C-alpha cells in the first residue's frame, strides 16, 4: 500500500502521504505529526477514525542515502513486529523552532502542502559533519551533506528583522524518483541564523529561535581544530588541523593600550581578548611585495574563567603610508577582491651598524630582536637614506647614516605616533 502501515488489532491502517488514513483503500480519517497546544513534541502520529481520536502511534524516523525520510512503526505499537519501512517523497527544511520539517510531494512531484516534523536536538557529527537529530523518544536520524565537510558555509545574514549577522548554511539535497521514472532533486533549506562563539576549546554556533527570545538558543558545536588567519578564523574538521572546512569572517588587531590582541569573530563581531603564549616567529620575505607572516600561539580568557587555545597565522604586508609612517596590514582574497585591514602593530625602529630594522611588540614586554625585519640595507645607500629620512621626519639631505638610534612607534587614539629618536651606542 502507498503509505505507512499500522497493524491495529488485526486491522491494517495506512497513513498516506496525502494525510488520509485508509482501511482497505477507503479513507476513514486523517493524521498529523505536529502536536496541538498541550501535546508533547514526541515524534508520534496522531490520527482519528470516523471522527474519533485514536491512540497516538510512535514512529522511528531515519533518512536513506538519497536523504528521503523513512518511517517505521516499532513492534510494541504494531502488534509485535516492526512495520515495513515506508519512504516518503519530499524535501528537507529547518523551521524557525530548529525542528526538521520534511515537506511531502506526490508521486508526480507536485507539492502536497503537507509535512512530517521531526523533533529532537540538532548537532553536527564530529567526523562526517552531517546534520544529526537526536530524536525525542529515542533514536537518531542523519541528513547527509552534498560534499562532506565542504557542505558547511559560514555566511553573512542581513535580513531584517533578525538582529544576528551570521548565517550557517548546511548544503544538502533530497533525490526522489517519480512515478514516471524521472528524478527530482530538491535542495534542502537548512540555514541557521545566529553568531559564532568559543566555548572552552570548542567552536560553536549559537542560533536563537526566530521570533521568540524566551526560548533557549540552540548551540551547534564543532569538534575539530581552528586557527586565526587573516580572513578571520579557519576551521579544520579533524583533530590534526589538516582537513579544511570553512572560514569564518573576522579580524585581529594588536591593542597597544592593553598589550594584547583584540579578536573579532563573525559578522556579528563578537569580541575576545587574546594573549600571546608559546613561540613566535616571523617568516620574512623580501622583494617588491614586502610580505611577511605573523605566527603565534594565543590564549583567550573568558569571563567564566575558561580558556581557549588557538594558533595565529596572519599573512600581512608592510609599507610606508602617505603620512610617512610604517603600516602593517593583513591581506587576504575574498570573492575576487584583495581585502586588507590595519593590524595596528606596535614596536620600535632601530638603526645600527648601517641597517634599519623594525622590532615588533607582541605582548607587554619590550620588542625583541628575534621579531624584527629589516627595512633597508647598507648595500643600497640611496634607499637607506630615503628610509631614514621618512622615519626621522627630516629631509634626505640632512640624514647622517652614522647616527645610531632607536625610536618607538605606537598607536594613540587610532593614529600612528613616533617617539623622538634616542641615540644608542655604536
The average pLDDT is: 88
Structural class: mainly beta
Give the count of helical stretches: 1
**Biggest β-sheet strands, sense, barrel:** 7 strands, antiparallel
Task: Give the distance, in angstroms, between the N- and C-terminal Cα atoms.
Answer: 95 Å
Q: Could you please describe the fold and organization of this structure?
A:
The protein has 426 residues and is mainly β. Among the domains are: 225-344, no CATH class; 346-426, no CATH class. The chain is 3% helix and 54% strand. It has 1 helix and 38 strands. It has one helix at 381-392; strands at 4-8, 11-15, 20-23, 26-32, 44-49, 52-53, 57-58, 60-63, 69-72, 86-88, 90-94, 100-105, 111-118, 120-124, 131-135, 140-143, 152-156, 166-170, 173-177, 183-187, 191-199, 202-207, 218-222, 225-229, 232-236, 244-255, 260-265, 270-284, 291-301, 307-320, 326-334, 337-342, 346-352, 355-361, 372-376, 405-412, 415-418, 422-423. Strands 1, 2, 3, 4, 5, 6 and 7 form a 7-stranded antiparallel sheet that branches. β3 and β4 form a beta hairpin. The model has no long low-confidence stretch (mean pLDDT 88).
Amino acid at each position: 500500500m502507498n503509505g505507512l502501515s499500522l497493524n491495529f488489532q488485526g486491522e491494517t491502517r495506512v497513513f498516506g502521504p496525502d494525510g488520509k488514513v485508509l482501511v482497505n483503500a477507503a479513507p476513514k480519517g486523517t493524521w498529523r505529526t505536529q502536536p496541538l497546544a498541550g501535546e508533547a513534541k514526541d515524534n508520534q502520529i496522531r490520527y482519528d477514525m470516523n471522527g474519533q481520536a485514536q491512540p497516538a502511534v510512535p514512529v522511528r524516523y531515519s533518512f536513506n542515502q538519497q536523504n528521503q525520510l523513512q518511517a517505521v512503526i516499532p513492534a510494541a505499537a504494531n502488534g509485535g513486529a516492526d512495520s515495513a519501512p515506508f519512504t516518503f517523497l519530499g524535501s528537507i527544511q529547518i523551521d524557525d523552532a530548529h525542528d526538521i520539517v520534511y515537506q511531502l510531494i506526490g508521486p508526480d512531484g507536485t507539492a502536497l502542502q503537507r509535512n512530517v516534523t521531526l523533533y529532537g536536538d540538532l548537532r553536527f557529527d564530529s567526523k562526517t559533519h552531517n546534520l544529526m537529530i537526536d530524536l525525542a523518544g529515542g533514536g537518531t536520524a542523519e541528513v547527509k551533506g552534498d560534499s562532506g565537510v565542504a557542505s558547511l558555509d559560514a555566511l553573512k545574514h542581513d535580513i531584517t528583522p533578525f538582529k544576528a549577522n551570521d548565517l550557517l548554511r548546511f548544503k544538502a539535497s533530497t533525490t526522489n524518483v517519480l512515478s514516471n521514472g524521472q528524478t527530482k532533486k530538491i535542495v534542502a533549506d537548512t540555514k541557521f541564523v545566529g553568531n559564532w562563539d568559543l566555548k572552552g576549546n570548542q567552536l560553536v554556533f549559537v542560533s536563537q529561535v526566530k521570533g521568540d527570545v524566551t526560548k533557549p538558543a540552540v548551540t551547534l558545536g564543532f569538534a575539530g581544530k581552528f586557527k586565526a588567519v587573516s580572513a578571520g578564523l579557519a576551521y579544520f574538521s579533524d583533530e590534526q588541523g589538516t582537513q579544511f572546512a570553512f572560514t569564518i569572517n573576522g579580524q585581529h588587531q594588536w591593542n597597544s593600550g592593553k598589550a594584547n590582541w583584540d579578536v573579532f569573530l563573525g559578522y556579528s563581531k563578537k569580541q575576545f581578548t587574546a594573549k600571546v603564549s608559546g613561540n613566535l616567529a616571523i617568516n620574512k620575505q623580501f622583494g617588491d611585495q614586502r610580505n611577511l607572516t605573523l605566527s603565534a600561539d594565543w590564549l583567550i580568557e573568558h569571563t567564566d574563567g575558561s580558556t581557549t587555545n588557538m594558533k595565529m597565522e596572519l599573512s600581512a604586508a608592510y609599507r610606508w603610508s602617505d603620512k610617512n609612517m610604517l603600516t602593517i596590514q593583513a591581506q587576504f582574497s575574498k570573492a575576487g577582491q584583495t581585502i586588507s585591514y590595519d593590524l595596528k602593530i606596535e614596536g620600535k625602529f632601530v638603526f645600527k651598524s648601517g641597517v634599519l630594522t623594525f622590532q615588533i611588540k607582541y605582548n607587554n614586554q619590550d620588542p625583541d630582536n628575534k621579531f624584527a625585519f629589516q627595512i633597508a640595507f647598507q648595500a643600497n645607500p640611496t634607499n637607506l637614506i630615503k628610509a631614514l629620512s621618512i622615519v626621522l621626519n627630516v629631509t634626505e639631505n640632512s640624514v647622517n647614516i652614522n647616527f645610531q638610534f632607536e625610536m618607538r612607534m605606537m598607536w594613540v587614539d587610532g593614529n600612528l605616533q613616533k617617539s623622538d629618536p634616542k641615540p644608542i651606542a655604536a
